[in-house]
Specification:
Elements lengths: L1 H13 L1 H16 L1 H5 L27 E5 L3 E5 L7 E2 L4 E2 L21 H4 L5 H11 L8 H11 L11 H17 L9 H14 L3 H6 L3 H17 L5 H25 L11 H21 L6 H17 L30 H12 L10 H5 L25 H6 L4 E5 L3 E6 L14 E6 L2 E4 L26 E3 L6 E4 L2 E3 L13 E2 L2 E2 L1 E7 L5 E8 L3 E9 L4 E7 L6 E3 L2 E3 L3 E6 L3 E14 L2 E13 L2 E9 L5
Antiparallel strand pairs: 1-2, 3-4, 5-6, 6-7, 7-8, 9-17, 10-11, 12-13, 14-15, 15-16, 16-23, 17-22, 18-19, 19-20, 20-23, 21-22
Helix pairs in contact: 5-7, 7-8, 7-10, 8-10, 8-11, 10-11, 10-12, 11-13, 12-13, 12-14, 13-14
């Protein structure tokens, strides 16, 4: 009965309109509606020239071609590649001839479906065109690969048409490939226009389903409709022009509505995920760049206010020395529009692009995003009011406003070189991981205390761990249970919310001297965490109530030569000491983390066993600078 009640409460939080939209979508799937309304179609313009004529005649590297998946691991692929193969497991989808709406989401015999989608996002295309633009050889035969993809992926057939967000990213990358090659869309060939039009026709009918997810799907698909619609609206074909105008108008409306709802008042995105926040912000930046290029009216004032807040948030959680950011929340390895091939964990280019577009200042001027070069946007000299330029060798601080306003899910304490971020529960949107009161600690570019990440949405059967579980975060696990019940692949019940704050955090200027958070779970377990910082040492006070058996306090550590004593661990640069009457034992163990999608690595974990209700004080002292 409890689980049933949990489900009812959870569905209520998801919202009636969202539930109705999902139900309608699933009914259409079962009834064959999409098979009839969106039939499989071949490419009518297949013989009318190349998709990207500007890429013809360019010297090409010989096969095999090295292609990075999820902005990480490189695989040597033949030419053209197998669009239906999982290079990680060496398995292949044998039947791709069904309508997309009849194919399963996850129960494919190839494992994680994202390994099939990755090539069909066309990230390789923008990278190859960037090499051509820079005067070099093409990394691969661009048009040969595009032709082969079209031959094997008729519109609406198979796995690569299953997800409208994947279709959105693919079409945006073709648009960007053309922009990189400096070819005006107004003189684009009929094949290019047909390709974009088919993708718009795929996105439009399921936009309400994307909206109902309250996540990046809605923003990505809105941007695709807006951008692709502007291109199609310039077509000489009246039917394509009408489609373009419809898409651009609907995309603009959906994007403004999604930004208003999903970006909370302090700038945090609805998914409580650092990587998905970057993904969302990159699509907003692209929409603004294309809007300026096409000279269409500005977005609403509310849109720009939310985009500004989201930009400030990303800057505030980005470590300016390494460019990395907390590995908090789910992610799928996405780093969109990365044709300059920067490291997946460098968030500075996205922060710089958004700061120039939405804050009218440069925050990371040494990290210019590739889109800024394509659309001729220069870094802005000088800092806007309330913001500070941060370079790789700068001693200046981070922007002041975000430090004081991280409240809806995240709180920050510290300075530029040394800071901590506390993940506090917030139940406005569905949580993606059981990570309440996780603490991230950064010192001189190193993520000293960290999170485990995601690894995969559909991991192989031999991988039994879910990195979203409470035990994979730097927080407290009470009585061996998750903080919330997981009732499906992407859904928890018993959502946590922040308990009322008993006292206002102490502040000094723009910085918090103390941050705190607490929650009570569905079994009555209570955890409060208070974090203070004096410039050299963090003091963390964890109070646990309602613990009937035992609890474990964990600090997931950066890989290093840690020395262990009974109540302490230390490395060359950091020492961690714990004390409390409830401590029954400590240990330094090994666990796993995933900082890149589908890559696991080992990390040490300092575990403190606690008996019953207790108060534990932890001191994290930063010593020397990391090299």
């Amino acid at each position: 009965m409890r689980l049933s009640l949990d489900r009812l409460r959870t569905y209520r939080k998801l919202g009636l309109s969202n539930l109705i939209a999902v139900a309608v979508y699933r009914r259409k799937l079962r009834s064959g509606h999409f098979v009839k309304s969106m039939p499989v179609e071949g490419w009518a313009e297949r013989k009318n020239g190349s998709l990207l004529p500007e890429a013809e005649g360019v010297p090409e590297a010989e096969a095999p071609h090295s292609i990075r998946f999820f902005n990480d691991r490189a695989f040597d692929l033949e030419s053209p590649p197998d669009w239906f193969s999982n290079p990680y497991s060496q398995t292949r989808l044998t039947d791709n001839h069904s309508h997309w709406s009849t194919m399963p989401d996850f129960n494919l015999d190839t494992g994680d479906v994202k390994t099939l989608w990755e090539l069909s996002r066309f990230d390789w295309l923008t990278k190859a065109c960037w090499q051509i633009h820079k005067g070099g050889d093409a990394q691969l035969p661009v048009n040969e690969w595009l032709n082969n993809w079209c031959d094997l992926n008729p519109a609406n057939q198979g796995v690569n048409w299953k997800c409208a967000q994947e279709a959105s990213i693919r079409a945006l990358n073709l648009f960007l490939a053309q922009a990189i090659l400096e070819r005006e869309s107004s003189v684009a060939g009929s094949r290019y226009i047909e390709f974009l039009a088919f993708h718009v026709k795929r996105i439009l009918p399921t936009a309400s389903y994307a909206k109902a997810q309250d996540n990046n799907h809605g923003t990505s698909e809105a941007v695709a409709l807006f951008v692709l619609g502007l291109v199609l609206a310039k077509s000489s074909d009246s039917s394509i022009t009408r489609l373009g105008n419809q898409a651009a108008n609907q995309g603009r409306s959906l994007l403004e509505e999604r930004a208003e709802k999903l970006i909370l008042e302090d700038g945090v995105f609805s998914q409580y995920s650092v990587n998905y926040h970057r993904m969302m912000l990159d699509t907003l930046s692209l929409a603004e760049l294309v809007r300026r290029q096409y000279g269409v009216p500005t977005f609403s004032e509310k849109f720009y206010a939310k985009a500004k807040s989201a930009t400030q948030w990303l800057i505030a959680v980005t470590d300016p020395i390494s460019g990395d950011a907390p590995n908090i929340g789910t992610n799928d390895g996405s780093l969109l529009f990365n044709f300059k091939d920067v490291d997946f964990r460098d968030f500075r280019p996205s922060g710089e692009m958004a700061s120039v577009l939405f804050l009218q200042c440069s925050v990371f001027p040494d990290n210019r995003h590739g889109l800024m070069e394509v659309f001729s946007v220069e870094p802005i000299g000088g800092a806007a009011a309330g913001h500070t330029e941060i370079t790789s060798n700068s001693n200046k601080g981070v922007p002041s406003a975000p430090l004081r306003e991280l409240a809806c899910g995240f709180r920050r304490i510290g300075n530029r070189n040394t800071f901590a971020i506390l993940k506090v529960p917030h139940d406005r949107f569905r949580p993606s991981q059981a990570d309440a009161l996780h603490l991230d600690v950064w010192h001189n570019g190193e993520n000293v205390v960290r999170d485990a990440g995601t690894y995969s949405y559909n991991p192989p059967i031999e991988f039994s761990s879910d990195l979203g579980d409470t035990r994979f975060h730097s927080t407290v696990e009470i009585d061996g249970r998750n903080q919330m019940n997981k009732i499906s692949r992407f859904l928890y019940s018993s959502w946590l919310s922040q308990n009322p704050v008993q006292k206002k955090p102490r502040e000094r200027g723009s910085e918090f001297l103390e941050i705190q958070g607490s929650y009570t779970d569905h079994m009555g377990g209570f955890h409060s965490r208070q974090v203070s910082f004096d410039g050299k040492e963090f003091t963390i006070i964890d109070e646990i109530l309602g613990c009937s058996q035992n609890a474990i306090l964990r600090f997931r550590l950066a890989p290093s030569a840690w020395e262990y004593e009974k109540y302490a661990v230390s490395s060359q640069n950091v020492s961690i000491n714990v004390k409390g009457s409830g401590i029954t034992g400590t240990s330094l163990n090994q666990s796993v983390e995933s900082r890149y999608y589908l890559r696991l690595s080992e990390v040490p974990v300092f575990e403190i066993s606690l008996s019953g209700d207790s108060v534990t004080t932890t001191k994290i002292r930063v010593l020397n600078s990391f090299q």
